[in-house]
# Entry
Amino acid sequence: MTSENVPIRPPASADEITNGWLTAALQGRHPGALVTGVEVVSRSQVTNSHARISVAYDSPSTAPSSMFVKVLPTDDRRDAVARTRMGPKEVRFYRELAPRLKLRVPEVHVAIEDSSDDTFVLLLEDLVDAGALVSDGTWGVGADGAATALEGLAEMHARFEDPKRRAAEAGWVVEPVWGSTYGSTMLQFGLDHHRDRLSDNFAAIAEAYINDGRRLFELWTTGPKTVIHGDTHIGNLFFEGDTVGFLDWGLIAVNTPMREVSYFLNMAMDIEERRTHEQALLRHYLAARSSYGASPMTFNDAWAAHRLQAAYCVVASCQIVTFPANISVGRTVFSDAFLNRAEAAISDLDALGALREATGR
# Structure
């Protein structure tokens, strides 16, 4: 139930973070910190509830004066999001795996989950206060940043490729299972109501997934297995110069590493940078894998997997193609850019052709 042996429950919202609660929660990472004031300075509802808090202490402390807070949503989605267990998985990532990896991730100050009801709280480094940048979707990762990020992903992929080591260090990370009709339902809505806003290739892949999603799921999960972030699109990254950091580990899973690499190249990079450098970057990733002792993977096999995995960008866009009218301007900008990346990837890589070759249809 606790992190760092702190026997306290996660708060329901940032407003429930009191001086006493935070003082107790910080002792694991910042012994002796005594909180004298907590103020919520901003908040937003995304998948979960996010906030930034300002913190005062009775004396100078190693604990930060501002932190990013992540808890379950406070609206009517709370129970549904709790059932996904994304929050508890992210807590365990920061608590158990992040210290072992070279990837840049936010520093964690408090990470608590309660298995009795899947509530959780994360208090992380305030990246805004640190001067890091987060894309609005309209700009993406450049070639240099992508190369460094792929090296970090290669180190993680190599580390957890061995099943025995994976079981010992990350046994709670599991393979995805087929069963949800959520993506199919959203894609069908998009085809029924917004077909004119989607390319023919996008629509064809969507129809293939609606009609035979299990088969496509099997194709996208075939290959050597390791621990992957699972959702490396531009919205889950932050930038410090040429360093790319990784946020939102709630979809961490055991899957083929090419699912990760392809999705990162297609959905995180600037489109023109990806077009110009993706083959060189893929070779760079393969070389990094080898340097970390991962199993061999040829460029031809990796390229074929990259093309096939590009078709997944359609499913990843399932919420976006419903084109909801009640979202913010910022969310509209991000969604449009997300769909543009997906459309560019499936066109450039002939993802539909790769899918037909793999299925024989």
Notes: DSSP finds 14 helices and nine strands in the chain. The two ends are 49 Å apart (CA to CA).
